[in-house]
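Researcher: Here's the sequence for the chain we discussed earlier.
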Amino acid sequence: MSQVEFAEYRHRLEKQHGQPLEQIMRDIYIDKDYGPATGAQALGISRQVFMHFVHEFNLKPDKLQRPNYTNCSR
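Model: Thanks. This is the structure I predict for it:
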């Protein structure tokens, strides 16, 4: 996939959501804790495009540092 195609996805998503793409990705991937397949489906894009933007914005370290309350011992 070319940089032009990624730019087209960026433009379309920012127009649809009225936010910068980095914020959209952060909301879906980190705040809502969606995985790549679910996040891609929620945004109407392919998993490949979703992961491209995860890497572009370096979101993986932030997701890994996010507290996982479902696995806390009681």
